[in-house]
């Protein structure tokens, strides 16, 4: 904490309550942040963090409670009013209008170009063009744009809701450096995240919400993590371990791969990627921002055509001109942006049952009962918060993400393409998802798993390919997948020493 952080809090909220119909989102939430301080707001999925931030930033009206800014009792009637007082959020979902380009979006929210450019450079996406259409930009870039827009308006209190959840490691580093510098310059930051490593690095304090009630406030110090997890989850101990054994079946590894990818290139970033994905295997994909991973998943899911290379599914050539072609060959994508996967106005149940609903020939009393049982099983295993189940858009971000995964747990899959699937999911559920992926693999599914959280390779994968500059530069077994090894490879530092060929990328 800087010297500026001592003394009276800049923002002081207490007794905040909010209900949505029958759902009590907040009962008694409180939070203080001083100038120059970074405070983590923590809690399991659905604990009420986003609701609290929306109240603090004028997007929602509280049912009860007080908010003091600079010692004065304030009730913001709108986000614009909160912004004028210097309180500015970056929400979980990108805010820019997809049909416009970057420049038009800047004009729309009245942000001058020069400070925006400054922050874009600081945050590591200097190659962005102002005439890039928003709809063509990857989620990670959109999140950085939202942050740059907000910083350009010089906030007094910056509120970041899962800011780093969709970002690759290099961009996470940039964001953490920038927000620490903001605090050192006397600004305040409220930082919502499920990632302890980041909180330990940049935050001064953590405030913990459980079921809408603030249950603790801690100074960040070594060893505090266990205490926070215990409080967040209400005393349920969470051991963070690799999920099950993964002695790969050598017969399966020798058999025809489920997916054989050779020399795939697409767009300007994906140059030449080759790998085999076997039946029963979880193959991690690790890459820094913009190394071609988005393009690779797009090609495999039929959203974009490859410029070069071949794909074989179960030993037979495949060519995907449309997502339906990939689905027909058993390849299912869980996209990074959940908005692309969910029917937001439909119920949790309908969203999870979607693959079955797509086959009217299977309708009938018994399949319906079976479907209900499958949905109930997915809800139970992923601990989906069903309090607002009638419309998925009313679920918390983490719970929406669980629904996108739950759909495929319920449906059963052959080849699952997961793009950063645990984004915004709390620590307890994450550690239920890893064994679940292992279980799907154990039943014969093949899973390609891009992750921006490097520890997930050791926790859930058999091995990982590392992509740098659009090429596979290393293949790392789970047992060797320390963060250090993965990072070295992801930065291309192993490329000179050892460049694996397509055959080395096979087990
Ligand atoms: N508009 C709404 N209508 C009904 N329920 C809502 C609405 N917005 C939020 N909720 C409910 O309020 C509760 C708290 O949600 P909130 O998004 O604040 O949680 P969170 O702590 O931010 O979770 P996450 O970590 O998953 O983002 C959830 O049960 C959610 O379904």
Automatic annotation (TrEMBL):
GO molecular function, one term: ATP hydrolysis activity
Xref: InterPro entries: AAA+_ATPase, ABC_carbohydrate_import_ATPase, ABC_transporter-like_ATP-bd, ABC_transporter-like_CS, P-loop_NTPase
Descriptive protein name: Sugar ABC transporter ATP-binding protein
Family: Belongs to the ABC transporter superfamily.
Repeat in keyword set: yes
Keyword line: ATP-binding, Cell membrane, Membrane, Nucleotide-binding, Repeat, Sugar transport, Translocase, Transport
Pfam families assigned to the protein according to its UniProt record, in alphabetical order: ABC_tran
Membrane-spanning residues: none
Domain of life: Bacteria
ABC transporter domain sequence ranges: 11-236, 245-494
Family matches, as SMART domains: AAA
């Amino acid at each position: 904490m800087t010297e500026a952080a001592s003394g009276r809090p800049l923002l002081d909220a207490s007794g905040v309550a909010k209900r949505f119909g029958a759902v009590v989102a907040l009962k008694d939430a409180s939070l203080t942040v001083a100038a120059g301080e970074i405070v983590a707001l923590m809690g399991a999925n659905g604990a009420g963090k986003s609701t609290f931030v929306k109240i603090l930033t004028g997007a929602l009206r509280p049912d009860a409670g007080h908010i003091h800014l600079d010692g004065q009792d304030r009730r913001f009637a709108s986000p614009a009013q909160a912004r004028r007082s210097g309180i500015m959020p970056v929400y979980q979902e990108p805010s820019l209008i997809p049909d416009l380009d970057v420049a038009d979006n800047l004009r729309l929210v009245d942000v001058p170009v020069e400070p925006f450019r400054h922050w874009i450079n600081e945050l590591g996406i200097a190659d962005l063009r102002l005439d890039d259409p928003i709809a063509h930009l990857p989620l990670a870039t959109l999140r950085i744009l939202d942050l740059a827009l907000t910083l350009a308006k010089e906030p007094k209190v910056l509120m970041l809701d899962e800011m780093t959840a969709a970002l690759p490691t290099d961009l996470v580093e940039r964001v953490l450096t920038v927000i620490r510098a903001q605090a050192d310059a006397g600004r305040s930051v409220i930082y919502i995240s499920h990632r302890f490593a980041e909180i330990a690095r940049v935050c001064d304090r953590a405030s913990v919400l459980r079921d809408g009630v603030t249950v603790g406030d801690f100074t960040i110090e070594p060893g505090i993590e266990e205490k926070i997890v215990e409080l967040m989850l209400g005393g349920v101990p969470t051991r963070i371990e690799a999920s099950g054994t993964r002695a790969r079946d050598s017969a399966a590894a020798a058999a025809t791969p489920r997916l054989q990818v050779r020399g795939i290139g697409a767009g300007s970033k994906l140059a030449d990627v080759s790998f085999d994905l076997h039946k029963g295997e979880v193959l991690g994909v690790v890459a820094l921002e913009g190394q071609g991973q988005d393009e690779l998943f797009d090609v495999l899911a039929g959203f974009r055509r490859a410029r070069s290379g071949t794909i074989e599914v179960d030993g037979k050539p495949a060519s995907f001109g449309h997502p339906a072609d990939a689905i027909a060959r058993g390849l299912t994508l869980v996209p990074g942006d959940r908005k692309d996967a969910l029917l937001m106005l439909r119920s949790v149940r309908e969203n999870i049952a979607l693959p079955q609903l797509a086959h009217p020939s299977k309708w009938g009393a018994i399949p319906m009962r079976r479907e209900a049982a499958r949905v109930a099983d997915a809800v139970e295993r992923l601990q989906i918060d069903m309090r607002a189940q009638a419309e998925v858009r009313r679920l918390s971000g983490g719970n929406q993400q669980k629904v996108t995964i739950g759909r495929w747990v319920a449906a059963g899959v052959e080849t699952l393409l997961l793009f950063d699937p645990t984004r915004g999911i709390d620590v307890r559920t994450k550690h239920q998802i890893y064994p679940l992926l292992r279980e799907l693999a154990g039943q014969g599914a093949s899973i390609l798993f891009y992750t921006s959280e490097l520890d997930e390779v050791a926790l859930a994968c058999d091995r990982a390919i590392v992509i740098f500059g659009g090429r596979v530069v290393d293949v790392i077994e789970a047992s060797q997948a320390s963060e250090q090894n993965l990072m070295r490879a992801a930065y291309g530092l192993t490329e000179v020493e050892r460049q694996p060929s397509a055959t080395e990328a096979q087990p």
